[in-house]
Known about the structure:
Helix content: 10-25%
Radius of gyration: 17 Å
Low-confidence stretches: none
Structural class: alpha+beta
Number of strands: 8
Strand content: 35-45%
Order of helices and strands: EEEEEHEEEHH
Largest sheet: 8 strands, mixed
Amino acid sequence: MNGSELHAAHVEVCARVVDVYAYRMQSSAPEVLLLHRSQNVSYAGTWRMVGGKIETDETAWQAALRELDEETGLTPERFWAVPSLNRFYEWRHDRINLIPAFAARVSGAPALNNEHDTAAWWPIEEAARQLQWPEQQRLVRLIGQMLSAGIPASLVIPPEEW
Protein backbone atom coordinates (compact mmCIF):
# COMPACT_ATOMS: atom_id res chain seq x y z
CA MET A 1 0.00 0.00 0.00
CA ASN A 2 1.50 3.35 -0.93
CA GLY A 3 1.25 6.59 1.04
CA SER A 4 -1.43 8.06 -1.24
CA GLU A 5 -4.01 5.40 -0.39
CA LEU A 6 -6.56 6.15 2.28
CA HIS A 7 -7.27 3.70 5.04
CA ALA A 8 -10.94 2.98 5.59
CA ALA A 9 -12.16 3.49 9.12
CA HIS A 10 -13.97 0.63 10.80
CA VAL A 11 -16.42 3.00 12.40
CA GLU A 12 -20.15 2.56 11.88
CA VAL A 13 -22.03 5.69 10.78
CA CYS A 14 -25.77 5.53 11.23
CA ALA A 15 -28.97 7.48 11.69
CA ARG A 16 -30.82 5.47 14.32
CA VAL A 17 -32.69 8.21 16.15
CA VAL A 18 -34.27 11.62 15.65
CA ASP A 19 -34.46 14.86 17.64
CA VAL A 20 -37.60 16.99 17.65
CA TYR A 21 -37.58 20.55 18.96
CA ALA A 22 -41.18 21.51 19.71
CA TYR A 23 -41.76 25.24 20.05
CA ARG A 24 -44.53 27.78 20.43
CA MET A 25 -44.61 31.48 19.66
CA GLN A 26 -45.17 33.72 22.69
CA SER A 27 -45.43 37.46 21.99
CA SER A 28 -43.54 36.82 18.72
CA ALA A 29 -40.65 35.10 20.55
CA PRO A 30 -40.24 31.32 20.41
CA GLU A 31 -40.27 29.10 23.47
CA VAL A 32 -38.93 25.55 23.28
CA LEU A 33 -40.62 22.64 25.01
CA LEU A 34 -38.20 20.56 27.07
CA LEU A 35 -39.12 17.36 28.86
CA HIS A 36 -37.61 16.25 32.15
CA ARG A 37 -36.67 12.58 32.06
CA SER A 38 -38.18 10.25 34.65
CA GLN A 39 -36.09 8.10 36.95
CA ASN A 40 -35.14 4.63 35.64
CA VAL A 41 -35.05 5.72 31.96
CA SER A 42 -32.12 6.77 29.78
CA TYR A 43 -30.86 10.25 30.64
CA ALA A 44 -32.84 10.20 33.94
CA GLY A 45 -33.14 13.56 35.65
CA THR A 46 -32.11 15.64 32.63
CA TRP A 47 -33.96 18.10 30.41
CA ARG A 48 -34.26 16.88 26.81
CA MET A 49 -36.11 17.57 23.63
CA VAL A 50 -38.42 14.96 22.12
CA GLY A 51 -36.46 12.14 20.56
CA GLY A 52 -36.46 8.48 19.80
CA LYS A 53 -35.57 5.61 17.55
CA ILE A 54 -36.40 5.31 13.87
CA GLU A 55 -38.41 2.14 13.37
CA THR A 56 -38.06 -0.28 10.46
CA ASP A 57 -39.72 1.00 7.26
CA GLU A 58 -40.07 4.49 8.76
CA THR A 59 -38.43 7.66 7.46
CA ALA A 60 -36.68 9.96 9.90
CA TRP A 61 -39.41 12.60 9.59
CA GLN A 62 -42.13 9.99 10.17
CA ALA A 63 -40.28 8.85 13.30
CA ALA A 64 -40.12 12.47 14.47
CA LEU A 65 -43.90 12.92 14.11
CA ARG A 66 -44.56 9.61 15.89
CA GLU A 67 -42.20 10.45 18.75
CA LEU A 68 -43.77 13.90 19.16
CA ASP A 69 -47.19 12.28 19.47
CA GLU A 70 -45.99 9.48 21.79
CA GLU A 71 -44.05 11.75 24.15
CA THR A 72 -46.31 14.81 24.20
CA GLY A 73 -49.64 14.03 22.52
CA LEU A 74 -49.12 17.19 20.45
CA THR A 75 -49.72 17.55 16.71
CA PRO A 76 -47.64 20.11 14.84
CA GLU A 77 -49.17 23.17 13.25
CA ARG A 78 -45.97 23.49 11.22
CA PHE A 79 -43.28 20.85 10.88
CA TRP A 80 -39.89 21.28 9.26
CA ALA A 81 -36.50 19.69 8.84
CA VAL A 82 -33.68 21.58 10.50
CA PRO A 83 -30.87 21.87 7.90
CA SER A 84 -28.28 20.47 10.29
CA LEU A 85 -27.62 17.30 12.28
CA ASN A 86 -26.99 16.44 15.89
CA ARG A 87 -23.84 14.37 15.74
CA PHE A 88 -21.70 12.60 18.28
CA TYR A 89 -19.38 9.66 18.77
CA GLU A 90 -20.19 6.73 21.08
CA TRP A 91 -16.93 5.21 22.21
CA ARG A 92 -18.59 2.10 23.71
CA HIS A 93 -19.96 1.08 20.29
CA ASP A 94 -17.29 2.78 18.15
CA ARG A 95 -20.18 4.50 16.38
CA ILE A 96 -20.70 7.94 14.90
CA ASN A 97 -24.33 8.96 15.24
CA LEU A 98 -25.88 11.36 12.76
CA ILE A 99 -29.24 12.47 14.13
CA PRO A 100 -31.72 14.27 11.88
CA ALA A 101 -33.31 17.22 13.66
CA PHE A 102 -36.83 18.55 13.19
CA ALA A 103 -38.76 21.52 14.53
CA ALA A 104 -42.48 21.48 15.23
CA ARG A 105 -44.63 24.51 16.06
CA VAL A 106 -47.27 23.30 18.49
CA SER A 107 -49.90 24.70 20.79
CA GLY A 108 -51.60 23.37 23.88
CA ALA A 109 -50.33 21.54 26.90
CA PRO A 110 -48.30 18.36 26.45
CA ALA A 111 -49.64 15.06 27.75
CA LEU A 112 -46.48 13.30 28.88
CA ASN A 113 -45.82 9.60 28.63
CA ASN A 114 -44.03 7.63 31.37
CA GLU A 115 -40.58 8.62 30.07
CA HIS A 116 -40.98 12.13 31.51
CA ASP A 117 -42.09 13.54 34.83
CA THR A 118 -42.55 17.19 33.86
CA ALA A 119 -42.36 19.59 30.92
CA ALA A 120 -41.51 23.27 30.65
CA TRP A 121 -41.43 25.97 27.98
CA TRP A 122 -38.14 27.89 27.81
CA PRO A 123 -36.97 30.90 25.76
CA ILE A 124 -34.30 29.88 23.23
CA GLU A 125 -31.22 30.82 25.28
CA GLU A 126 -32.60 29.32 28.49
CA ALA A 127 -33.54 26.12 26.65
CA ALA A 128 -29.99 25.91 25.30
CA ARG A 129 -28.61 26.25 28.84
CA GLN A 130 -30.87 23.45 30.11
CA LEU A 131 -29.65 20.97 27.49
CA GLN A 132 -26.47 19.09 28.36
CA TRP A 133 -25.07 18.29 24.92
CA PRO A 134 -23.35 21.04 22.89
CA GLU A 135 -24.88 19.89 19.60
CA GLN A 136 -28.41 20.11 21.05
CA GLN A 137 -27.62 23.57 22.40
CA ARG A 138 -26.38 24.60 18.95
CA LEU A 139 -29.50 23.25 17.25
CA VAL A 140 -31.84 25.12 19.61
CA ARG A 141 -29.99 28.35 18.83
CA LEU A 142 -30.07 27.60 15.10
CA ILE A 143 -33.83 27.06 15.27
CA GLY A 144 -34.21 30.41 17.03
CA GLN A 145 -32.16 32.12 14.30
CA MET A 146 -34.17 30.46 11.56
CA LEU A 147 -37.47 31.43 13.16
CA SER A 148 -36.29 35.05 13.18
CA ALA A 149 -35.08 34.94 9.58
CA GLY A 150 -37.92 32.84 8.16
CA ILE A 151 -38.10 29.14 7.36
CA PRO A 152 -37.35 28.32 3.72
CA ALA A 153 -40.36 26.61 2.13
CA SER A 154 -38.13 23.76 0.96
CA LEU A 155 -37.60 22.67 4.60
CA VAL A 156 -41.30 22.56 5.53
CA ILE A 157 -42.88 19.11 5.39
CA PRO A 158 -46.47 19.72 4.25
CA PRO A 159 -49.30 18.26 6.37
CA GLU A 160 -50.62 16.29 3.39
CA GLU A 161 -47.39 14.25 3.56
CA TRP A 162 -47.91 13.31 7.20
